Every structure is written in structure tokens, then in C-alpha cells.
Amino acid sequence: MTEYTQLEIEDPINGAVFHSLNGKRLEGGLLIDVSGKVLTSYEVYVNGVRTERKGNNFTSTVVLKGKQTEITAISGQSRDIIRVLLDPNEELRYSLSFDDNIFFLWDILSRGYDSLFDNFYLRELKELHDKYGAKFTLNIFYKVDERYKGTFGPFSLNQFPDKFRDEWEKNSSWLRLAFHAFSEFPNRPYRNAPLDKITQDFDLVTKEILRFAGSAYIPTSITHWTFMPHETFSLLRKKGVRTLCGYFTPKKGDLAPGELSYSTNYDLNDKISRYLHEHKAVKDFDSGIVFCCLDLLFNATPIRDIPSKLDFVMSNPKKRGVLVFSTHEQYFWPQYKAPESWFDGPTDKIHFRHVPYHFQRLETGIKIATEGGYKSVFLHECYDL
Question: Which residues pair with 72 in a beta bridge?
Fold first, then answer.
């Protein structure tokens, strides 16, 4: 909202991104709904058209033309102005990224494989690519955390050889590597970190990926735990980052009854987080980064629940058009152990956390998306805005 407190456009919000399926298609553009609150006694006009007003609420419609449209609400001397974006790409598309990757690289090195696809993890992903045309982004740690010493390490990226570089590049049309964090722990590593910390870690991981995988490198679209200072956004944009995906999960903690806050949301405010939870994408004009909401986390979703969850998104006029999928590498490994809850503090309650039908979960989601007409893309390249 602007400096005027008497009037606010609430939906959409500034920077909201619309796919052609998120409104009513007209020959001249995309018709969308606009709503908000007003405290003045005057009528409300949106882009010069008188709105329907009921008490302190108003509703209207606006036609989006071209990539960017300015929406202005006026009531007496009060006004609110926002800018929204129409995605020029009308294709149905989905992205799938894998977080917390490092174990498979240790496995390839320690077993002395002749091909990347001798490793079961990459081999299974290739089979999904060959069958469905699926593309994958693997978000990489620099090192195996000390707690896995003896099970998956010790190992760090600088140990991985460049002998597979040609194979990485040959398969880079569907398989890419990106920065995630220095290591799996501590949780939320960048939430209150100085800018030079994420810069150092980003450059360190990127340098190694470029060394051993060449053109298979792609700028990240999600950082570990997603929290970071807002000043980091512009820094990452300068390093090539164009999109950042988060969970934007509603949470109820020590809040007053009826209040709602959000987690794993890049510390964006509740207004933006709420909008992303209910919609798909918002562009931060200050940094140029598009923030996207995750639709499905495979390691946390049983096979039986995947069809209904995807049906909800694919039929939801606020979300359909682009699907954002994610999962985590560690749950593919039978020997993987983890805390009982990631949100606990230090704990001795460590359990095997292997998901035995993880690849079947992926195939279930990929098959539904593909049969629904969705094309696999890299999220980094998803929005040309």
C-alpha cells in the first residue's frame, strides 16, 4: 500500500505474476479480478472505472495487456498503485528440483564409477527423463556434514574429479547442478548471516560445479531453508539468480488467536507470503527476482496423496499453469538417518528416514503432470519477466 492509509488494493498485490490460466482470456488480454479495502466515504475507481462497493470492501476487474500493467485505485484524495505482470509464456510447465545433494557425488567418487549413471540415483533420474522428458535441478552442498562421517564421507566438492565433465555437459539439457549451501547443518544457515557469508559459499560451490560439470551449472532457484536477509536478493540477482522457490507455509506459533504467520519464506512479510501461499508467483521489483510457491514436496507426500494434491493445484484458477515440485536427496538412501523432527533442537532421537518408494513418488507426479499437458522446465528459466 502507498502512503495513503485509507485505501488498499489487497488482491492482487504489487508484483503479482499471472499465467494466462489465472484469469479470463480476452482477445485484448487477460481479465482479472481486483479487490481491496477502503475507509473513505467516496466511491472507488480502479483504472478509471467505478467499482462495486460493499461497506469497506470494493471489487473490480482489470484487463492485463503486455508484460506489465499498472493498477490504480482512487477514492477521493486517497489512492493506491500497484504493478502486476502477465507471463508471456502460455505453456503449461512444471519444474522439479532436488535439495540437499552431496551423497551421490561421494558415492560416484568412492566407488570409482566409469559413468555418472552407474550411480543408482542419477541412473533412475535418467530413466524418468528418457520416459517422460523430465528435467531436474540438483541443488548442491559443498561438503558432507560431519555427522555423516563414516556413512557418507568425509567428502567435499573439491575432491570430485573433472573426468565426467563431458558426460555432465552432454546431459545438461535435462540435468543441472546449482548452489544450495555450504553444508546441511546448521539449519537456517543464512537467516542472520552477513552478506559475505552467502557470497563466499555461493562462489565456492559455483566454482567447483563449473570446474567438474561445465555447462551443467545453473543458478540456484532455492537456498537451504530459504531464510536470508533481504539485501541478499539483489546480490544473488547479480550472480544470475532469477527465481527463488519457497514453501510459504502457514504456521501458528505463539501468536494471538486468529493470527497467522509463515515459515520457509525468505523472511518476506506476511502479506507477500500469504499471497504466494494462495497463488503462484510474485516479482520483487527491487531485486528483479521472481518468488514462487512450492506445490508438492515428494519426500513428504505418500503416493496415494499425490493425485489429489496435484488435482487441487491443476484445477485451481489461482495456481494452475505452472507447477513447482521439490524433494530431497537424502531420503533416497537406505542408510540415511535424521532427527525425529527438523524443527527440534539438538536431539538424540535419530531414526532411519529412507523413503523406499521415492522414485515411484516422482514418477507418479511426473506422469500426472505430463498427461495433463505440462512440459518439464528448469525453474530458473521459467519466467522471462
Answer: 81
Q: Could you count the other beta carbons within 10 Å of the beta carbon of residue 140?
A: 26
Range of weakest confidence among 12-21, 230-239, 331-340: 331-340
Residue 308 has pLDDT above 50, yes or no: yes
SS3 (DSSP) at 242: coil
CB 76 within 8 A of CB 45: no
pLDDT of residue 1: 40
For the chain, what are the domain ranges? 7-86, 93-381
Taking CB atoms within 8 Å and a gap of at least 24, the contacts of 366-370 are 366/96, 366/128, 366/132, 366/134, 367/132, 368/306, 368/307, 368/310, 369/94, 369/310, 369/323, 369/325, 370/132, 370/133, 370/134
DSSP 153: B
Alpha-carbon span 91 to 377, nearest angstrom: 11
Half-sphere exposure of 113 (CA within 13 A, CB side): 19
C-alpha cell at 153: 564421507
The helix or strand, by DSSP H or E, that contains position 75, with its residue range, turns out to be strand 68-75
Say which amino acid occupies 59.
T
What is the DSSP pairing of strand 136-141 with strand 93-101?
Answer: parallel
CA distance 162 to 314: 41
Higher pLDDT, 344 or 297: 297
CA distance 97 to 13: 27
Closest CA to 132 of 94, 166, 97: 94
Q: Work out the average pLDDT over 322-345.
A: 80
Domain spanning 7-86, CATH architecture: Sandwich (2.60)
- In the block, cell 533442537 appears at 345
Query: Cα separation of 285 and 117, whole Å?
Result: 41
**CATH 3.20.20.370 assigned to 93-381:** yes
Helix or strand run (H / E) with residue 306: helix 306-314
pTM over 0.85: yes
Residues 6 or more apart in contact with residue 79 via CB below 8 angstroms: 2, 4, 7, 72, 73
What is the per-residue pLDDT for 260? 63
pLDDT at 153: 83
